[in-house]
């Protein structure tokens, strides 16, 4: 069921990870979850940049044109989905090093459900103040990392001690992916594919 595990991941994460491990609903369920939850960041980024305006320090809010915001939102959506699939592949690729033999579906489930809090915290973009978004982002990242550390031993069927090192490696890969996406955005901006501001 789409978003069926969402409530449990926030209220009792370890039990929910065990339920996910027991059911293994397959690639289609994980894909549906990713496609739906990954809509939140671009949707709220579009709303805040076109209709509310971003405030950086004092002064008037900054707005984007609708066409520019839409293009950036679509690009963000596909980048987020690609990032989850890349993280799942890296999780799967590293698994044998830590004595685990998961399927790619298990790695995708781990990546999809771990990324969920980070995607959901994008609701904070309705109040587009930089300090507020940074606090909300840190909360989302912290809970995503917590889900990762609790989920790895359960989904990968390895002891918690080994799971801790495995999860730390996944976090490192996630940070590299994030930096790669940011670097790609900067390169596109330098090529002239950047935001267009409305006045």
Brief sketch in words of this structure:
73% of the residues lie in helices and 2% in strands.
- In helices, the fraction of residues equals over 70%
What is the terminal-to-terminal distance? 45 Å
**Cross-sheet strand order for the largest sheet:** 1-2
Instruction: Decide which structural class fits the backbone.
Output: mainly alpha
Low-confidence stretches: none
In DSSP terms (H or I, runs of 4 or more residues), the helix count works out at 8
Global outline: elongated
What topology does this entry show?
Elements (H helix, E strand, L loop, with lengths): L5 H6 L1 H11 L3 H11 L2 H13 L10 E2 L1 H29 L9 H17 L9 H27 L3 H31 L6 E2 L1
Antiparallel strand pairs: 1-2
Helix pairs in contact: 2-7, 3-6, 4-5, 5-6, 5-8, 6-7, 7-8
General description of the model:
- Helix 6 runs antiparallel to helix 7.
- Helix content is 73%, strand content 2%.
- By secondary structure, it is mainly α.
- Strands 1-2 form a two-stranded antiparallel ribbon.
Supply database-style keywords.
two-stranded antiparallel sheet, mainly alpha, elongated, 199 residues, 2% strand, 73% helix, 8 helices
């Amino acid at each position: 069921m789409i978003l069926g595990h969402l409530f449990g991941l926030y209220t009792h994460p370890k039990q929910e990870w065990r339920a996910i491990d027991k059911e293994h609903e397959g690639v289609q369920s994980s894909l549906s979850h990713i496609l739906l939850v990954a809509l939140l960041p671009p949707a709220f980024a579009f709303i805040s940049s076109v209709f509310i305006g971003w405030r950086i320090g004092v002064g008037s809010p900054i707005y984007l044109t609708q066409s520019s915001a839409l293009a950036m939102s679509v690009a963000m959506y596909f980048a987020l989905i690609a990032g989850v699939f890349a993280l799942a592949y890296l999780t799967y690729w590293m698994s044998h090093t830590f004595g685990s033999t998961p399927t790619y579906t298990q790695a995708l489930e781990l990546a999809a459900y771990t990324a969920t809090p980070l995607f959901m915290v994008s609701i904070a973009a309705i109040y587009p103040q930089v300090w507020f978004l940074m606090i909300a982002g840190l909360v989302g990242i912290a809970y995503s990392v917590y889900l990762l550390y609790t989920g790895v031993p359960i989904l990968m069927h390895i002891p918690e001690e080994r799971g801790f090192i495995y999860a730390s490696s996944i976090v490192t890969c996630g940070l590299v992916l994030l930096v790669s996406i940011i670097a790609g955005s900067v390169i596109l901006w330098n090529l002239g594919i950047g935001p267009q501001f409305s006045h």
